[in-house]
């Protein structure tokens, strides 16, 4: 947050020894040395940085799944979001650097990778190479040892037919797309500066479900955005019921200093935001519960991640559609892809048994 002038001023007055921006994170060891040697505060804040610093050491938690950034920053300027101001404008990593990191991950025993970006769909813009996100997914799938590829986040305005076809055709790319709707009202979407309509989103969701067998769509949803009326909120509920998300991260709108939405009129009272959030969650949880119960009796491919956090005697893993499955099995299955038959479903988890092969 030191990228923001008002935060920077507060930090300077607070007596903090080192103040650095998001673009200077890789310089921290040298900044510490400089602060020790000089005996005074050190300030290093690069306002805008187009270069991506590669070759930095990476420390990952042991496990089966790893995360890899493919791009940084954002060019969308949603009116509620501070990211473009703190993380800078959008810039993509070179494909060769990403593939090198994926090969390192595979050599360390990771079986699944999630490619990260504020909007992965716009990957490649500004690069000399003519490589878009679908091309990158295909390149990543050629890395031996990586069995599954996921990605997030996917902006609805930039989901292309090429990307949908890639997910449908590429066996390593999981049939799950996190596609934040944020709101179901066209007027609220306009004030959010989301650059798509509810009609576009419905058409896109229909295309994803029809062209990618078994595809799961998950979302982010915000209630109580400034000026959101009861009718606007009902439009969001209507969209949730029409799209039927497998899961959704739901939020009450909160003011972020420095964003355009912070100065919008007609802020929704806190109690009303709480009421709307509860209603939204009730509707979404009921849909997730129905979707999960429909999976009972069916067998699904599961990548075994380790022991269940709630029951160490059992194993846990995820389906290709990102559903959590808990089941009994020997420890040597960790890291393998196996088939599990769903015997019981709850709103947030599935329980199953190994399918004998």
Shape: globular
Strand order of the largest sheet: 11-12-13-15-14
- Relative strand content: 15-25%
Instruction: State the low-pLDDT regions, or none.
Output: none
Tally the helices: 10
Task: Give the H and E element order.
Answer: HEHEEEHEHEHEHEHHEHEHEEEEE
Sketch the major β-sheet. Answer: 5 strands, mixed, barrel
The gyration radius over C-alpha positions equals 22 Å
Head-to-tail CA distance between termini: 53 Å
Percent helix among the residues?
Answer: 25-40%
Number of strands: 15
Mean pLDDT: 91
**What is the CATH T-level topology of the largest domain?**
pyruvate-formate lyase- activating enzyme
What is the correct CATH architecture of the largest domain? Answer: Alpha-Beta Horseshoe
- What is the CATH homologous superfamily assignment of the largest domain? tm_1862 like domain
Number of domains: 3
Q: So what's the CATH class of the largest domain?
A: Alpha Beta
Oligomer: single chain
| Class inferred from helices and paired strands | alpha/beta
